[in-house]
Amino acid sequence: MSKPDTVRFRYNQAILVAAVIAFIGALPLANARGYLLPVLLVPLAVALWAWRAGTDADARELRVRALVGQRRINWDHVLELTTDQRGRAVARLDDGQQVNLPAVRSVDLPRLVSATGQALPDNAAEAPGQ
Predict the structure, then answer these.
(1) What pLDDT digit, counting tens, does each position of 11-57 carry?
(2) What confidence tens digit (pLDDT) does each residue in 66-112 have?
(3) How far apart are the C-alpha atoms of 58 and 53, rounded to whole Å?
(4) Cβ distance 97 to 91 under 8 Å?
(5) What pLDDT score does 91 carry?
(6) Which parts pass through the membrane (predicted)?
(7) Are 9 and 91 in contact (CB under 8 A)?
(8) pTM of this prediction exceeds 0.70
(9) CB atoms within 10 A of CB 56
């Protein structure tokens, strides 16, 4: 169970609904021939991924969850939270690695930082020429 101070980021649940519809749509195909039965595994994997994948953050650590497994990263190892060209959040670590944060967009970064218990810097004070 998650603690109340944990911030959770998940993909839109419409992906899960689409996977269920794809599973139902694939049933006639899988029943037509026995060798087509593995076709049902694709929508099941997508549904499981949509339900599980994401990012959890609290004051101690950052948890990156995938289809199978998860990675825990202490905030002490995170040098920077930034975004890539597509607007997805990336954590740069002190060992030079970059970790993509699933389901976290650039607009979610303030909420992610607030999970650490630290305050965001004032943007007006950092803006040059003002």
Answers:
(1) 999 999 999 999 999 999 999 998 999 999 999 999 999 999 999 99
(2) 999 999 999 999 999 999 999 899 999 999 999 999 999 999 999 99
(3) 17
(4) no
(5) 94
(6) 12-29, 35-53
(7) no
(8) yes
(9) 19
Cα(34)–Cα(56) distance, integer angstroms: 40
Q: Which amino acid is at 88?
A: R
Tokens found for residue 8 = 């959770």
The phi, psi pair for 34, rounded to 5°, reads -65, -35
- Chain center to CA of 28: 33
Q: Crossing angle, helix 14-32 and helix 41-52, to 10 degrees?
A: 160
The CA distance from 99 to 73, in Å, is 10
Map residue 4 onto helix, strand or coil: coil
